[in-house]
Amino acid sequence: MTPLAQAILNGLMTGALIAAPAVGFTTIFAVLRYPSFAIAAHATLGAFAAWYVNTRLGAGVPLSVAVGFLFAALVGGSLEHAALRGLRGAGALTVSIGSIALNLVLENAVRFSFGNDLRGYDLPLAPDLRFAGLRVGAQQIETLVFAAAIMAAVFIFLRYTRFGRAMRAVADNPDLARLKGVDPERIAVAALMLGAGLAGAGGVLIGLDTSIDPLTGFRVLLSVFAAAVLGGLGSIPGAVVGALALGVAEELALLVLPATYRTGVGFLAILLMLTFRPRGLLGERAV
Amino acid sequence: MSLLAATDVVGGYARDEQILKGASIRVDPGEIVVIIGPNGAGKSTLLKAVAGLVTVQSGAIVFDGADVTRLDAMARARAGLAFVPQERNVFATMSVAENLSISAFLDPRAEAARVAELAGRYPLLTERRHALARTLSGGQRQILAMAMGLMAKPRLMLLDEPTAGLSPRAADELFAAIVDLNRAGLPMLMVEQHAIEALAIAARAYVMVAGKVSAEGPGPALADDPQIRRLFLGG
Ligand SMILES: Nc1ncnc2c1ncn2[C@@H]1O[C@H](COP(=O)(O)OP(=O)(O)OP(=O)(O)O)[C@@H](O)[C@H]1O
Ligand SMILES: [Mg+2]
Fold first, then answer.
1. Rounded to 5°, angle at Cα A115 from A113 and A118
2. What is the ipTM, given to two decimal places?
């Protein structure tokens, strides 16, 4: 019983780490209609920006997460807009390939600036917490709280603010949005910034959990993509549910399979979903 | 002076495509003007050209004395044109309340007052406030789409087949709602398949065939014209 419960708990923790980038990925898809693989680089950019303010300037965890979000949004999001806007007319496949190229450029820019070494954040050491035979790190709890807070903020933004609703309107029906006076081009820029920012914040959470290097984002790219597909591409609650479900599925698979098969779970999830339930776990529901 | 005058409009969806081949129509203040015609004649395309969703290659669209031919859809909405498309005319994944709210995007300060006014006119907007638009019945959806157009306090409403797919009863109710709005002072330019009912409420009407206007006249007169009866009204 305990190993099973522990695996589910660990799965929710890993799922929470990829939830923010998965929501970022799905937001960009919902508004711009292409899968952006540059989300990996945005996560890495956020992780390094946060690492810098954390280890060099002594910023605490909340401020570091905020810096990771802002840096990825402003730098990653606007670079993606500037680099790929000219390709958008040529269709989703072209833009998507462009995003892979952008990802390589940004990743190597990070490598050039910081090298390939693993880096860790400066965090106070805290003992693991134990209850009912389960073990969980204090940092993991903090990370989980941040992930939940980020999701709540995104939900409130999309649901209750004028601009957030406009973003959902464009995702739903760009022509009609235009008729109502919402400019899809401005919303596209905002969606890229939000998406990149969420990836950046997620990159920081991943860094808090382990360590960072220029491949931090790339390593979780498949999981992020799988989580978004599981939730139904373009569905924000879907991406959150997809991330948690994938995290749990990966950990449960590790109970019976060697650790090397872990990424296989992501592939399998994509394959099964696209075959049997292409609209995602929650069906068609944007927010 | 006409409220809307579209003169010799040529245009289509691709750069060199001509779906509209020199269509001319006008709407005078206070009128309901109806456009009928066979499938694929370009009726929807003409409304989209007026709304700014289809590029006009030549010809002119003058609204309320100003040439709007080169303005985009957003600027035309701001100028007082509200277009209710034939299909996909509500935000399906958003609630009724959110659909209304986003329709006041250009003038958020007026939102609350207009929602209150429309809710008085159409009770379903309150009753189904939290329902997602895609769960509404066809008739309810059309009312919502019209109400969304009204949120912008338009000076001309463009309606594309508002009764398409509705039951006869729901269609009658919608025609009644349209007449009510018109009596309250709102001019309408409307494309309709239910030609007899539409001509009955029209001040004037146009018959469109192959991208051009082939006949025009007062609604009832067109409805009595034997040739038009034979071609479009089923005898
Ligand atoms: N979005 C579009 N892109 C390209 N071509 C289109 C588009 N919409 C319509 N067309 C073409 O334009 C022509 C006129 O279509 P339009 O929708 O204006 O006709 P309509 O008179 O409204 O017909 P219906 O009574 O069926 O609504 C048709 O040949 C149609 O195939
Ligand atoms: Mg049509």
1. 125
2. 0.90
